[in-house]
Design brief:
0% strand, binds heme C, mainly alpha
Amino acid sequence: MNRCFHFALFWLLAGISGLWAGSAHAAGDPAAAIAKLGACVACHGADGIGKAPQYPNLQGQKAAYLEKQLKAFRSGERQDPNMSIMAKPLSDADIADLAAYFEQVE
Ligand code: HEC
C-alpha cells in the first residue's frame, strides 16, 4: 500500500509542478497586452481583424508566429513602412503579450 501511495503522491506533485510551470511560463499575457495595444488596433482592429484590405488579420494566429514576425520587423529582417516603425519600440515582453493577445482574441 505504501509503495502505491508514494507512487500516486509522486505523480500528483509532478502534476501540480507541471501546472505551476505552465502558469509561470514566459508566454505572453493577453491581459497585459490590452494596455500595449495602442496604435495596433487602428489597423488590425481590437478583435484582430484588419480594418482595410492591406492590414492582415491577426485574430487566432499562432502566438509563436506573431512573435516571430514582430521580432523580424523589429530587427529589420522583415520590412514594411508601417510595421517596421510600430515594432521598433517593443520589448520582448511587449511582443510576447501582444502575440498572446491576438492568438486568443475573438
Ligand atoms: C498603420 C497601420 C498598422 C499599425 C498601426 C500596425 N500594423 Fe501591424 N501590419 C500592418 C501592415 C500593413 C502589415 C502587413 C505588412 C506586410 O505586408 O509585410 C502588418 C503586419 C503585422 C504582422 C504580421 C502578420 C503576418 O501575418 O505576418 C503582425 C504580427 C502585426 N502587424 C502586429 C502589429 C502590432 C502588434 C501592432 C501594434 C504594436 C501593429 N501591428 C500595428 C499595419 C499596421
